[in-house]
Write a structure and sequence with these properties.
Helices cover 30% and strands 27% of the residues. The chain has 226 residues and is α/β, with parallel strands linked by helices. The chain has a single domain (9-72, 79-211), classed as 3-Layer(aba) Sandwich (Rossmann fold). The chain has a seven-stranded mixed sheet. The longest helix has 18 residues, at 9-26. It is globular, with a radius of gyration of 18 Å.
């Protein structure tokens, strides 16, 4: 595990970012091409998170960065968090591996399909005790929707969110997340901040459309878009 010590934080963060990028690239998770995103916009690169999450060694190393950061309070062996939680689906893997390394419980929140704002719930007997310090983890941050949807569930249970942590931040500069329920803001950190420009579809906006490059709609099939 990598522990970030005072005075070395900037250097350590840069090294962690470089290593995270290397793991994504070596696993094939960072792909170049012409992609149709879920937002409808186009991009010249795409992150397929499960390419890296399917590698147990890479996933363990990435979660080890979090375990090093939150692993001790400086007054003994007690971790800085009592519980790790993530949203389905990638967050399940990350929460349980981080919890394993920290020696804490790990749970996940499932999406609830109802009218209004999207939300997540802790089911299957999962619980958060009042006052428990909770680390929220997820894979790729674009809008923060998955984390935002689970924050109210943690607050309602009386948990104290220590931080929201993601592997890759491609949001364009978000540093906090505001609870949809209370408006309270929580710190956000990323192992790697990635700038991936996106474009409106069409040859006037997207250079890859202008080139006539085949476009792919990544996801469950990865098939070329019609």
């Amino acid at each position: 595990m990598t522990t970030i010590k005072p005075g070395l934080e900037a250097t350590a963060r840069a090294a962690i970012a470089a290593r995270t990028e290397a793991l994504f690239r070596s696993s094939g998770a960072l792909r170049d091409g012409h992609f149709l995103l879920k937002s409808g916009r186009h991009s010249s690169a795409y992150l397929e998170k499960f390419a890296v999450l399917s590698d147990p060694a890479a996933t363990s190393e990435l979660c080890g960065f979090w375990a090093g950061r939150y692993g001790t309070d400086g007054a003994g062996d007690r971790p800085l968090v009592d519980l790790v939680a993530g949203p389905t689906t990638g967050g399940v893997i990350l929460a349980f591996e981080t919890g394993r390394q920290l020696g804490t419980r790990a749970i996940f929140a499932e999406e609830v399909h109802t009218g209004g704002h999207p939300r997540r719930e802790f089911r299957r007997g999962f619980r958060i005790e009042p006052g428990e310090r909770v680390l929220l983890v997820d894979d790729i941050l674009t809008t923060g929707g998955s984390l935002l949807a689970m924050i109210p569930a943690v607050e309602a249970a009386g948990g104290e969110i220590v931080e929201c942590a993601v592997l890759v931040d491609r949001s364009g500069g978000m540093s906090t997340l505001a609870s949809p329920a209370t408006g309270r803001r929580y710190a956000l950190s990323a192992l790697w901040i990635l700038e991936l420009p996106t474009f409106e579809p069409g040859p006037d906006s997207c250079p890859l459309c202008a080139e006539g490059a085949p476009i792919y709609a990544p996801g469950s099939t990865g098939a070329a878009a019609s």
